[in-house]
């Protein structure tokens, strides 16, 4: 599979705490952690669409297919008919947001916050651009 150019990794701006998240965004953190934990994946992600529906996913690493959790969550939303995203969360051990996941969210929303959280659910920061 040829490499697809993606946006460079984005460093999230620090967030005061998980309490700074809305209740709806807090639910995305829970969903993303659950998706990651169920299969022991490197990352978990969740997104909320324009109708308030949520989609959660874990990263996929197969010999013929590699997707970040955020790419798969966005793909699931699009496959279900979403045309816009309100917010996204990725739970990861990395300190930056991967470029491919970032680009996938931006395809549907130029201004949706992307919260980056540690595996324990602590929000590390938010990418808004």
Describe the overall structure:
The chain contains three helices and seven strands; from the N terminus they run αββββαβαββ. By secondary structure, it is α+β, with helices and mostly antiparallel strands. A five-stranded mixed β-sheet has the order 2-1-5-6-7. Strands 3-4 form a two-stranded antiparallel sheet. The protein is globular. The model is unreliable at 1-7 and 14-18 (pLDDT under 50).
The class by helix and strand makeup works out as alpha+beta
Main sheet specs: 5 strands, mixed
Fraction in beta strands? 15-25%
The end-to-end span amounts to: 29 Å
Total helical segments: 3
Q: How many whole angstroms does the radius of gyration measure?
A: 13 Å
Beta-strand segment tally:
7
Contiguous uncertain segments of 5+ residues = 1-7, 14-18
Mean pLDDT across every amino acid position? 88
Side by side, the strands of the main sheet go 2-1-5-6-7
User: What pattern of helices and strands is seen along the backbone?
Assistant: HEEEEHEHEE
Q: Helix share of residues?
A: 25-40%
> How would you sum up the global shape?
globular
What are the key terms here?
disordered N terminus; five-stranded mixed β-sheet; alpha+beta; 129 residues; two-stranded antiparallel ribbon; 7 strands; 29% helix
Topology overview:
Blueprint: H1 23-39, E1 44-49, E2 54-58, E3 60-61, E4 66-67, H2 69-79, E5 85-91, H3 99-108, E6 114-117, E7 123-127
Parallel strand pairs: 5-6
Antiparallel strand pairs: 1-2, 1-5, 3-4, 6-7
Helix pairs in contact: 2-3
């Amino acid at each position: 599979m040829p490499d697809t150019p993606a946006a460079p990794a984005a460093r999230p701006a620090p967030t005061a705490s998980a309490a700074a998240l809305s209740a709806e965004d807090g639910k995305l953190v829970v969903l993303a952690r659950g998706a990651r934990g169920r299969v022991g994946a490197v990352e978990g992600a969740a997104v909320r669409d324009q109708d308030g529906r949520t989609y959660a996913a874990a990263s996929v690493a197969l010999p013929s297919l590699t997707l970040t959790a955020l790419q798969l969550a966005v793909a699931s939303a699009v496959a279900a008919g979403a045309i816009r995203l309100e917010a996204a969360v990725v739970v990861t051990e990395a300190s930056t947001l991967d470029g491919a996941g970032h680009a996938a969210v931006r395809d549907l929303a130029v201004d949706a916050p992307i919260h980056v959280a540690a595996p324990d659910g602590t929000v590390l920061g938010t990418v808004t651009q």
